[in-house]
Write a structure and sequence with these properties.
By secondary structure, this protein is α/β, with parallel strands linked by helices. It has 12 helices and 12 strands. It binds iron/sulfur cluster. The site of iron/sulfur cluster has 13 residues, from loops.
Length: 375
């Protein structure tokens, strides 16, 4: 029987880019599955390699190493432009910035019809027209917009065209690469709802890439957190928010405001430098910023292991099991507290300095003190 979790299988995916200084490890040994009809959210800071993962899966970037299977088909086995074109009928991408990804000289109709023409899908113009207008309706674009050009439309409508272009070939899997990051918050919600509806209607599977955990949680079934080319934690969307295990995930979550009145979250301030992704050494890449770093963290790269049912983490804190890791984390709370206190103290001192300057200015203007430029 088919395992639902095996629809997309990515194993040991690597994407390195040669630079003058050495090999840049943008994606370094990344593995995960996505089930049929599931959404996996992929989050991390800008430059962590999450978009490169999406592009490598659909081979917009040729992977350096690793295997990719979609519905048991070997994605790496497709050769030449004709075969790749065929593969991309099943795997599509929606880009972040619909304005720069759409040809400004094409109107809405032609932009949506373009993938059909390129792949010689529609039998004739009549079928093409029917499919384009059907798709416009599906993504919520009125017929009257068929002749409009991208610059005449708002960001939300442009992104609807981007989604229509991805869906017109009836793919099974879609990489959503920061699809709402360039949109206003009110439009973001509309596009997220649309993607949700389309997923149910068309039985789609998504890899949803974003730097924003609060956006990802609205659409994802499971969430993977990336740091400098590696997945550091992967679990369902409830566990990632209620029981984050990796120190980096905990720091990311601490930056999200809690909407409920009366609930407090202690902000974790990361110190230290992000290491270079060029020819990285064998260690935990987060070690320079992690308050729990141990000697082993600077010598051995932690592997992503299943520490609880469906909960994967790459961190040496859990080398002796979940409870042992939690114990170390709880003793580390003192360090965290002193970091918070230090930051609060710095803020207080800044405020005090500002207050002193305001007071000095007042006294100068009221003649209680000689003006600074008169001294
Ligand atoms: S492996 Fe070590 S340095 Fe890396 S996150 Fe875990 S405790 Fe911190």
């Amino acid at each position: 029987m088919e395992n639902k979790a095996d629809f997309l299988r990515v194993r040991n995916l690597k994407k390195y880019f040669p630079t003058k200084k050495g090999m840049l490890h943008a994606v370094d040994d990344v593995s995960f599955n996505i089930g049929r009809g599931e959404t996996l959210g992929l989050v991390g800071e800008s430059g962590c390699g999450k978009s490169t993962v999406g592009r490598a899966i659909i081979r917009l970037h040729e992977p350096t190493d690793g295997t990719i299977h979609l519905d048991d088909k070997d994605v790496m086995a497709y050769r030449g432009s004709a075969e790749l074109k065929k593969m991309r009928q099943e795997m599509q991408i929606v880009f972040q910035d619909p304005y720069s990804s759409l040809n400004p000289r094409m109107n809405t109709f032609d932009l949506i019809a373009d993938p059909l023409r390129v792949n010689h899908i529609a039998k004739n113009e009549k079928e093409m027209e029917e499919r384009v207008y059907d798709m416009m309706k599906t993504v919520g674009l009125e017929d009257r917009l068929a002749g409009s050009y991208p610059h005449e439309l708002d960001g939300g409508r442009r992104q609807r065209i981007g989604i229509a272009r991805a869906l017109i070939l009836e793919p099974k899997f879609i990489v959503m690469d920061e699809p709402v990051s360039a949109l206003d918050v009110s439009i973001q919600a509309q596009i997220l709802n649309l993607m949700d509806t389309l997923q149910d209607k068309m039985h789609l599977t998504y890899l949803f890439i974003s730097h924003d955990l609060s956006v990802v949680r609205h659409i994802s079934d499971r969430i993977a957190v990336m740091y400098l080319g590696k997945i550091v934690e992967l679990t369902d969307y409830v566990s990632i928010f209620e029981n984050p295990l990796h120190p980096y995930t905990q720091a990311l979550l601490s930056a999200i405001p809690i909407p409920k009145y009366g609930l407090e979250r202690h902000r974790i301030f990361l110190e230290g430098d992000v290491p270079s992704p060029i020819d990285p050494k064998e260690d935990c890449r987060f070690a320079g910023r992690c308050m729990h770093a141990m000697d082993v963290c600077r010598q051995v790269t932690p592997q992503l292991v299943e520490i609880a049912d469906g909960h994967f983490v790459a961190c040496h804190l859990y080398d002796n099991g979940l409870e042992a890791g939690r114990t170390i984390l709880s003793t580390g709370k003192d360090k965290q507290k002193s970091r918070e206190e230090k930051t609060t103290q710095e803020h207080y001192e800044e405020q005090t300095t500002e207050e002193v300057l305001v007071e000095k200015e007042r006294k100068e203007s009221e003649g209680e003190l000689p003006k600074t430029d008169q001294l």
